[in-house]
Amino acid sequence: MAPVYETGHAKNVANFQDLISFCQSYGTTYNPTKENLKIPQLQLLYQEAQSKLDDAKTQKATFDNATNSRRNTFADLRSLSTRVINALAVSGADALAIEDAKAINKKIQGTSSKKPTSTETPTTSEGAGGGISTSQQSYDRLIDHFTSLIELLNQNKSYAPNEDDLKTTTLQTKLTEMKTANTELINAFTANSNAMISRNETLYHKQTGLVQISKEVKQYIKSVFGAGSPQYDQVNGLEFKVRRN
């Protein structure tokens, strides 16, 4: 059999299923003494690996959706904050309040040209975008700055715009949506990370992982049929590689 060059977690699991099928085809000749090399244990390991693989895919999809949702929720924050400042400036509020609001808005706008990307992942308690935290553009800080802006508006009774999306009640709803999207992203990241850890444990544990067991199965078949046998050639062509991501 020609070597199989495809890589990936799914390919490892698929090749393991092929390996089990070959072992079953050898009938009673395949009779290892080591318990976890026996066919029933191989089948259980395959089922567990497939389950962990599916769960990791599900959690990754959930994480990607949460990432997109948070990005969309925060997308208009900077333009919205600027509109709020302009509305406050013509509301009759005192000059000091306007200057304080402008200072908060400056923090929201940030000074870095770097933007969160589609591959963003939360690496700190501030969530995604840790690489631009120095410009105060991390998501937790954006929430904090927007909270401060709303509190300032609440303390200035002259701020009473007619536009619904600029009213403090609407801004408070926006803030709640931002907090929810941020929390959901952090929780999704945690679940995704844990699913990958669990998958990798099943597939790549140095003693009990699917890749290690497949090597031992191959070695056993080599010992039974010989290195030049067609049986060993069958399984030797099944490739298993360690991957972590």
Describe this structure in words.
This protein is an all-alpha fold and 245 residues long. It has one domain. Helices cover 64% and strands 0% of the residues. The chain contains eight helices and no strands. The chain has helices at residues 9-25, 39-74, 77-89, 95-109, 139-154, 168-204, 210-225, 230-236. The radius of gyration is 28 Å and the shape is rod-shaped. Residues 1-6 and 112-136 have low confidence and may be disordered. Keywords: Coiled coil. Residues 109-134 are annotated as: Disordered. Residues 39-66 form a coiled coil.
The whole-angstrom Rg is 28 Å
Number of strands: 0
Q: What value does the average pLDDT take?
A: 88
How far is the first residue's CA from the last residue's CA? 29 Å
**Low-pLDDT segments, ≥5 res:** 1-6, 112-136
Give the helix/strand class: mainly alpha
Structure described in brief:
Residues 39-66 form a coiled coil. This protein is mostly helical. Helices cover 64% and strands 0% of the residues.
List the helices and strands and how they pair.
Blueprint: H1 9-25, H2 39-74, H3 77-89, H4 95-109, H5 139-154, H6 168-204, H7 210-225, H8 230-236
Helix pairs in contact: 1-2, 1-7, 2-6, 3-4, 4-5, 5-6, 7-8
Name its key features.
about 240 residues, mainly alpha, coiled coil
